[in-house]
């Protein structure tokens, strides 16, 4: 899958050469399928993030969207033109669209970033998803895989999702998310969907998925070869199937434990002890109605993980805050956890 996505990126860049559309960076594989602990080996969806940088003569400005009472941090991406008169004089490869004569500017703006991918001055996730949809269809015929795979585009409003069918009828589903990096950190704002009933198309939720991938890479580099932390996570995630305790909750528990327990203790001989640790930690969090988000105000964050100052200085966020305000939901979660332990 990674090789296929890399091939797509090469063609994308060729198609967009010298255009006024965002510059597409190398794709980053996200989630359990790329981290190595997917609970279901069949029907896996491969999520990839394609970071975008503004084209020449434009800038992206992230504006925090009022999060209200929720933990989620959402942003808008304001697109602004910038003066390139100095570059125009020195290099001459592109006119300054901010100060260019009006008639030539109109000619160049026929397929501009602001006209095509924005609503007002803000980058639109749905328009960007449709743009990626067109890019995938255009690039597919140029890829070597087109001769042996069958492409089917799938409906999705905020991302580009498609299915590839091999000659043996095995299917691969890939979802391309677009996003913008926060400074030089491992935190992005992305086109991912939110849990809200309605998500404005110019809202870009904050995503920690790249930082999570880097955390598991850090663990793999530090841990002995026979470490079974991913197998523990996979086993627990498989047990969770059908129960209303999210795999993200479980993943957060395991990340906290990996960050506190000696990595040498996650070997084959101690797998059962680590599985018990995971369940006991989860049980304690449910009873206390508190599970801290891994990336908010975590003083033990590995140095390799680069966080924006706002997250470094933030107070810990409680993923289980909804259980504090909803006794019925809390009782249901405890009941389901007791069912989980009996499996």
UniProtKB/TrEMBL annotation:
Subcellular location: Membrane
Keywords for this protein: Membrane, Signal, Transmembrane, Transmembrane helix
Membrane disposition: Single-pass type I membrane protein
Gene Ontology, cellular component aspect: membrane
InterPro entries given in the database record: ITPRIP-like, Mab-21_HhH/H2TH-like, MAB21L/cGLR
Domain Mab-21-like HhH/H2TH-like: 244-301
Pfam families according to UniProt: Mab-21_C
Homology family: Belongs to the ITPRIP family.
Protein name in UniProt: Inositol 1,4,5-trisphosphate receptor-interacting protein-like 1
Organism from which the protein derives: Charadrius vociferus (Killdeer)
């Amino acid at each position: 899958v990674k090789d296929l996505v890399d091939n797509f990126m090469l063609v994308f860049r060729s198609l967009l050469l010298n255009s006024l559309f965002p510059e597409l960076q190398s794709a980053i594989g996200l989630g359990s399928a790329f981290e190595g602990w997917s609970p279901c080996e069949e029907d896996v969806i491969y999520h990839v993030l394609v970071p975008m940088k503004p084209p020449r003569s434009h800038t992206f400005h992230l504006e925090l969207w009022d999060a209200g009472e929720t933990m989620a941090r959402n942003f808008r991406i304001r697109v602004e033109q910038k003066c390139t008169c100095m570059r125009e004089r020195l290099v001459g490869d592109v006119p300054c669209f901010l100060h260019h004569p009006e008639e030539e500017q109109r000619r160049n703006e026929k397929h501009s970033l602001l006209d095509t991918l924005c609503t007002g001055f803000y980058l639109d996730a749905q328009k960007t998803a449709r743009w990626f949809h067109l890019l995938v269809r255009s690039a597919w015929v140029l890829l070597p895989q087109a001769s042996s795979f069958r492409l089917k585009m799938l409906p999705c409003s905020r991302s580009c999702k498609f299915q590839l069918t091999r000659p043996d009828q095995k299917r691969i589903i890939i979802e391309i998310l677009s996003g913008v990096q926060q400074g030089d950190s491992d935190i992005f704002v992305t086109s991912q969907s939110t849990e809200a009933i309605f998500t404005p198309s110019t809202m870009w939720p904050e995503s920690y998925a790249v930082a999570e991938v880097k955390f598991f890479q850090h663990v793999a580099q530090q841990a002995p070869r026979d470490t079974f932390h991913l197998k523990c996570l996979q086993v627990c995630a498989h047990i969770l199937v059908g129960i209303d305790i999210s795999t993200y909750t479980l993943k957060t528990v395991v990340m906290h434990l990996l960050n506190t327990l000696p990595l040498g203790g996650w070997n084959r001989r101690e797998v059962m002890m680590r599985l018990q640790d995971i369940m006991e930690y989860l049980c304690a969090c449910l009873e206390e109605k508190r599970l801290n988000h891994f990336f908010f105000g975590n003083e033990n964050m590995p140095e390799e993980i680069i966080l924006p100052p706002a997250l470094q200085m933030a107070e810990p966020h409680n993923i289980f805050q909804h259980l504090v305000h909803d006794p019925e939901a809390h009782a249901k979660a405890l009941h389901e956890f007791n069912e989980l332990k009996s499996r």
